[in-house]
Amino acid sequence: MSMIVRRLSRAATAGLVAAAALTAAAHSAEAADTLGSAAAGQGRYFGTAVAASHLGETDYAATLDREFSSVTPENEMKWDATEPSRGSFTFTSADRIVDHAQSQGMDVRGHTLVWHSQLPSWVSPLGASDLRTAMNAHINGLMGHYKGEIHSWDVVNEAFQDGGSGARRSSPFQDKLGDGFIEEAFRTARAADPAAKLCYNDYNTDGVNAKSNAVYNMVKDFKSRGVPIDCVGFQSHFNSNSPVPSDYRQNLQRFADLGVDVQITELDIEGSGSAQAADYTKVVEACLAVSRCTGMTVWGVTDKYSWRSGGTPLLFDGDYNEKPAYDAVLSALGGAGDPGDPGDPGDGASCTATYTRTADWSSGYNGQVTITAGAEPISSWTATVTLPAQQSVSSLWNGTPTWSGNVMTVRPSWNGTLAAGASTSFGFTAAKNGSDAAPAVGSCTAS
Ligand code: G2I
């Protein structure tokens, strides 16, 4: 009884929720300084996978609420979580995520209805006709509960084998119902919630290869026969063994050309620093280059809760700091970062360097270089000093030098952070070795 009441109230409020989401997107497009708002400026959503168990963590919820415009329950809508015993649905954890998302004006992706993994143990032993009934009942149970509230559903997940065969993966559904289980699931899903985009979702299909060719042929066949399919999800779990494919954009485009939307559904890229940032840039640029790529979802908020946490594959570190990959994504989305936030796109960090000789004697001198921040605060600076060929530096203070020939590149030791317009200086002692010429101070760069 309580489930029925809940189901009615979800349906009754869905229209209001959709209106609220639109308002939030329109409003935040003006600010364009978070992932979600910058993506909205490009007509896309930017989402993340979410675990209900972390929503009570203040920094987790704050980062989620600030940055993202769509959420995907990471595990809470899967079959084992929602129908652990036949006909008995539990939506407590999934509802927590959907309620949270709606309270923040975020959209929700549904993940996933029919998948060989995370199946409760009662499903596999069913005979063919019972399994068909159970599959359709499961789709109807989930989609009915969230009718009107899910922007896209992963109707079928990972039904193709890895490797070169392009064959279907063995699963209870494939083995007992044959190839037709996929289109049956899509037809049932269309009837259950006509407003939801219906997606096929898989991994290792991000570039052109035998597996993506097989999915492509299935989608082409579905479109030609009127089987209801609206989008294809590309999970995009990348690392050194499975790098961002060079034909990623081309692959997304060929699916889009079949008349479906494409979505990047579970993006994560193992690595760190500028290399990871560059890979994220490739992915975002590929999506933006395909007009039917309607949005991107990263597979988690923070590295510490990633399914591949050892590979630090996400945009926020374990302390919720923005990583270089975050700045790269925001920049690729055309967003502007916070003024003075190091590395943020458009932060305008700048500095100047000026030289003075502060002491002089027959065999040597002391030089001082003053670094002054520009109109915005900075967190680091780099200055170059080129010495006349004969001269050599015997000591340097308040800076950290590296040498290339007679060019000294100096970075901060303790004094990298400067308020807008503020100054610091480093000094050095040089031996003249017969040349009294002044060193040349090159341009100063800041971040
Ligand atoms: O494996 C990465 C993803 C590949 N595509 C489909 C996604 O649904 C899948 O997500 C992952 C979740 O990120 C993990 O969190 O799916 C895994 C299971 O297939 C999830 O891991 C499971 C653990 O295996 C369980 O031990 C654990 O109880 O998460 C469960 C809930 O924390």
Would you write up a description of this structure?
- The protein has twelve helices and 17 strands.
- The strands form three sheets. The protein has an eight-stranded parallel barrel with strand order 1-2-3-4-5-6-8-9, surrounded by six helices. Strands 10-11-16-13 form a four-stranded antiparallel sheet, with no helix packed on it. A four-stranded antiparallel sheet has the order 14-15-12-17, with no helix packed on it.
- Helix 10 (248-256) packs parallel to helix 11.
- With 447 residues, the chain is α/β, with parallel strands linked by helices.
- It is elongated.
- Bound molecules: ligand G2I.
- Residues 74-75, 117-118, 157, 203, 235, 266, 307 line the site of ligand G2I.
Task: Describe, in short, the structure shown.
With 447 residues, this protein is of the alpha/beta class.
Give the integer mean of the pLDDT values.
91
Largest beta-sheet details: 8 strands, parallel, barrel
Topology, number of strands: 17
Strand order of the largest sheet: 1-2-3-4-5-6-8-9
How large is the count of helical segments? 12
Bound molecules: ligand G2I
As residue ranges, the low-confidence spans are 1-9, 15-32
Given helix and strand content, the structural type is alpha/beta
Taken as a percent bin, the fraction of beta residues is: 15-25%
Q: What helical percentage do the residues reach?
A: 25-40%
- Strand/helix succession: HHEHEHHEHEHHEHEEHEHEHEEEEEEEE
Estimate the global geometry from the Cα principal axes. Answer: elongated
